[in-house]
Amino acid sequence: MSEGAAEGMGEGRAARLTSRSVAGHLVRLTLPMTWGLFAVIGFNLADTYFVACLGTQELAAMSFTFPVVLLVISLALGLGVGVSSAISRAIGEGGVERTRRLTTASLLLALFVSLLLMGLGLATLDLLFGTMGAGPEALALIRRYMGLWYLSIPLIVVPMVGNAVLRANGLAVLPSLIMTLSALLNVLLDPLFIFGLWGFPRLEMEGAALATILARAVTLITALALLHWCERLIVWRLPGPAILARDWGCLLHVGLPAAATQMVTPVAIGAVTALVASFGPAAVAGFGVGTRVEAFAMILTFALTAAIGPLIGQNYGAGRFGASLAAAFDPAPQVVATAELYLWVAPASFAGLGVMFTANAAVNALGRPSRAAALGLGRMLLFYLPLALAGALLFGLPGSSRRRRRPTSSPDWPPSG
């Protein structure tokens, strides 16, 4: 395909998420991500199960590694948030060449960060896990696993960032297929390499790491192939240092804070793992199983988080800041302005409203409905209506051409005809 044809294809798909139903886009983006995450988390559980078959010490060693593995994945997710934000806005603005350049820069950034992590992890392996409370036996097993796993970090981070690029382009099914392919391949390879089935060597802990490396290598190749041959988003000539630094700054403007936020959870889990380690390997093994099972409860939240970013980014880049949602009901300017103002302000009250609804449910369950009624009536009569009246009298309605309309005593009211 020629360069011009590639650009034309890019222009044709530039704003997939700025038209049609918002709800439809959310469903289309969230559902594939949900089953993709289900496959990945299911693989983690299967991986844990196979290692548990080797013994409690092996399961404990695997549990020690979980916070570090989650830390790397969280960093990749944070980078993906920054990538998705920058690229989806570029798509919304219609910048095809900028989109391609940012895609290339994001993959180079992912490779650079992952190589740094790989070197840091290998250099601090004993120190880190020793600080977390791993004893000599567990540490020996951890070396066998993480010595290989650290080498696979580029195979983990780069495809995850590539998937974020695909989602930023409004493509939800392809990233989920890549995640599912990786999970299935890993589950199939695990017993072969861990237990030495069907003539494969019995590698135990190293086998689990090797299965992950091979599965992730396939996802890397698949993601790069889709970005290059299907979406034509990779520029194979390297940009100058100044341009690359500027693009990395754009990607990290959102990606760095997002990564820092994402990494809080694995750091906390690592600290708790160190506390649990004082109770022995079996306690660490049980804690590791619990944290992996817990991840299932968060699948839908993770999927919605991944879906909402590209949708908002493309519409923001296209200058569609949410008014179109109200316009779907009534395109009148005052209707749109009022609805938009409400949707900007009202969410600030949701936390308090959730607390009140929870309190209502609690006192009803205790058989005290009068208290629940008092809470609801008090909210309306003491706060909601008086504050609304005061706001109308003092400020009117921002965005309206008139302040609150007062009754008229004119004899021409109401107008005839």
How would you describe what is shown here?
The chain is mostly helical. It folds into 2 domains: 20-321, no CATH class; 324-395, no CATH class. It is 78% helix and 0% strand. The chain contains 16 helices and no strands. The chain has helices spanning 3-12, 22-52, 56-93, 96-123, 125-131, 136-149, 153-168, 173-195, 205-230, 241-277, 281-294, 299-317, 323-327, 333-345, 350-365, 369-395. α2 (22-52) runs parallel beside α8, α2 runs antiparallel to α12 and α8 (173-195) runs antiparallel to α9 (205-230). The N and C termini lie far apart (66 Å). The model is unreliable at 1-14 and 402-417 (pLDDT under 50).
Provide a count of the helices.
Answer: 16
Query: What gap, in angstroms, lies between the N and C termini?
Result: 66 Å
The level of helicity is over 70%
Domain tally: 2
Largest sheet at a glance?
A: none
What is the CA-atom radius of gyration, in angstroms?
27 Å
Give the low-confidence spans. 1-14, 402-417
Shape: globular
- Order of helix and strand elements from N to C terminus: HHHHHHHHHHHHHHHH
Overall average pLDDT: 77
Secondary-structure-derived class: mainly alpha
The overall strand count is 0
Percent of residues in beta strands:
under 5%
Short characterization:
The chain is mainly α and 417 residues long. It has helices at 3-12, 22-52, 56-93, 96-123, 125-131, 136-149, 153-168, 173-195, 205-230, 241-277, 281-294, 299-317, 323-327, 333-345, 350-365, 369-395.
Strand and helix layout:
Layout: H1 3-12, H2 22-52, H3 56-93, H4 96-123, H5 125-131, H6 136-149, H7 153-168, H8 173-195, H9 205-230, H10 241-277, H11 281-294, H12 299-317, H13 323-327, H14 333-345, H15 350-365, H16 369-395
Helix pairs in contact: 2-3, 2-8, 2-12, 3-4, 3-6, 3-7, 3-10, 3-11, 3-12, 4-7, 4-10, 5-6, 6-9, 7-8, 7-9, 8-9, 15-16
